[in-house]
Structure formats: C-alpha cells, structure tokens
Write a structure and sequence with these properties.
With 193 residues, the chain is mostly helical. It is built from ten helices and two strands, in the order αββααααααααα.
C-alpha cells in the first residue's frame, strides 16, 4: 500500500510540473517532448484528412487544406520547440503530407516537391520564425554601433551579448540575433523598427 501511495504522489507531482499556456505545454525544465506529443495526433489527423479528400480535390485545394489543418498547428510555438531533438517526427509527418499532395510513393524524395509547391520545410519555417521575431521586436535589439563608437565592418550588425550559458544561447533572443546577422541584408542597415 505504501508503494502505491508513493507512486501516486510521484505522478501527482509530475503532473503539477506541467503547465499549458496558450496551447503550449511546458514543464519546469522546458523539455518540449510533451508539447510535441500533444501536436502529433493533430498533425496525424490532418494527414489522414488529406488522404481521404485527395481523390476529390485538386492540388491547389489540397494545399489550402494543408495550410489550414497542418501548417497552422505545426508553426504554433515553433520558435520555442523548433530546435528540440524530436522535431524530426514532425518533419516526417510534413513529408508524408507532401507525398499525399503530389501523389508520390513513400520512398520518393520530397525535396523538389517542396520547391514546386512553394512550401517551406520545417527547418526553413523555424528560421523564418526567428527572422520574423527579430523584425517584429526590433526595439529589444541593439546594433553594434550603439554599443561602441569604433567604425568596423560589423557596426550595423545586431549586438550579440556575451553568454556562457548554453540554455541562453539556445534561446530565441540569442539564436534570433545569430540567424539575423548571418544573412547578407543585415549589413545594409539596422533592424527595421
């Protein structure tokens, strides 16, 4: 009886560590497996729905179903969980949907079909979410010329703060600066505000 009570207390404490905020499932260590486990059934049902209606709809209509049922769920909170190690499960589901839309076999490559359909793969969508974060929140970022008065070739790049913590370096603020500064147009001027 004591063992069952301890197991129940452990499960109760485990469940209390999870919080659901605006549809994102968080735990106290920011382990995104629980969030991915909640969106995979939604993405799988979108894949099934697309498979059922593909006989009756054109390719353009299938893309509309993809955008409304799959992409909206996949990209919600992507900036937070996009670098998590289990995101390949979501990418495989995205490839499955592309194969359904273009009527190809399960072993065929989807790379050229992403380009033909003008659909961004998960990794590119993740980078896009960082770029949009930096552009929409330009007031939170400083340019190197605001930090020092030295005329360098990187004076118009975003200032990358010093940090030794890998948790901070994997965060959206630090990673957003790195992604935005790696693009060629970031040297043309400061962040649009």
């Amino acid at each position: 009886m004591q063992k069952k009570q301890e197991n129940f207390n452990y499960q109760l404490a485990f469940l209390q560590n999870f919080k659901k905020i605006l549809g994102l499932t968080l735990d106290n260590t920011l382990f995104w497996r629980t969030h991915i486990d909640t969106i995979i059934p939604k993405l799988s049902s979108a894949s099934f729905a697309l498979r059922v209606v593909k006989l009756f709809l054109s390719q353009d209509s299938l893309k509309i179903v993809y955008y409304s049922n799959f992409l909206s769920v996949m990209t919600y909170g992507l900036i937070f969980w996009g670098n998590f190690r289990y995101n390949n499960i979501v990418f495989r589901l995205q490839e499955r949907i592309i194969r359904i839309i273009v009527w190809i076999r399960a072993r065929d490559s989807c790379r050229e079909h992403f380009n033909k359909l003008k659909i961004l793969p998960l990794q590119s969508q993740y980078i896009l979410s960082f770029l949009l974060f930096v552009v929409h929140n330009g007031d939170y970022f400083k340019v190197n010329s605001e930090i020092h008065n030295i005329n360098t070739r990187n004076k118009s790049n975003l200032h990358l703060p010093m940090s030794n913590l890998s948790v901070y370096q994997k965060g959206k603020y630090y990673s957003g600066i790195k992604v935005f500064s790696s693009l060629h147009f970031s040297n043309k001027g400061p962040v649009p505000r």
